[in-house]
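Posting for a labmate who doesn't have an account.
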Amino acid sequence: MDLKKYLVKEAIRLDLAATTKEETLTLLCDQAARLLRIQAPTVLAAVLERESHGSTAVGGGVAIPHGKLAGLNEIFMVLGRTAPGVNLGFDPPDGQPVQIVTLLLSPLAAISEHLKVLALLGRLWKTPKNLGLLLAAPDLDSFYSLFLELAATAA
């Protein structure tokens, strides 16, 4: 599975200036809404609805908030990287501060594809060195290329 069809470079924020989970989700949902040309509150509501069922932090410095949206034609991803050591309040299982947030938005009917992408992201983030490599990426182009390369390896 090639994540390039779900992630555009413009959907990556390397300078995510957020200090709480709510700020983080709002910023990433705003980014998605702008790029998808839909209402930001609609995107945020879908993500918060899912988040209300339990934290999407997976440990290892990563969270994968996600939601399903009516009217969305295909899966869309937004990535955010925070400053080192900022505790965003995602309540990760290992207590490690979340530094990479992978927001996944899916059409309502894309259940199988949604689960496949979540599984791929789970495998990608299961390798601890991947987080370090992405945190060290010096610019957007490097981060984007490296993320797609690591995802391809995890596939």
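Reply:
Got it, the structure tokens are right above this. Strands lie at 12-16, 57-59, 62-63, 66-69, 76-82, 100-107.
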